[in-house]
Amino acid sequence: MITKIISGGQTGADRGGLDAAIHCDVLHGGWCPKRRKAEDGIIPADYHLTEMQSDEYFPRTQANVIDSDATVIFTNGPISGGSLKTVEYAHSLEKPYQVIDLFRMRRSRAVKKIVRWLAGEPELINHDEYKASPPFVCVLNVAGSRESQAPGLQEAIFFLMVNVLIEVNPACKNFYGFREAKMKGS
Known about the structure:
Helices cover 33% and strands 18% of the residues.
């Protein structure tokens, strides 16, 4: 069960995860850069984020990995930039993480993979990297590509994470899920 979704509030994957939490009435939060800096200006106040002392992105990335039980990182192609840094932080802190490349994986399959990973299925653990299973009840950090690097990612992650929340959170069963056909670019 996901008790809270956190992220850094950047456009794209971060906000898609926060939007899903808000939609499903799941707690949300996380750390963001000073002055709520994001690529589109200021992160909207609708997102309940705490400002860091620094306006740099990497300190909030590390703080969100530290404050979560597990991290899911969404990309639309090879992992790079802040997403790669998130993997490095998760690995060095021995925190469970899962990378989902939506360029190579249908969203419906991604939902199933995340649900199975959260349930602790052993075949989803890559022993070359630290990808242990998260605890059954967890704070999930949602990270990944920015909207400018992967147009449409924020909406895609919103739909995907709503479906994940409905699957893993009993209280979210009352919310409307999204079928694969409704997800753009599936």
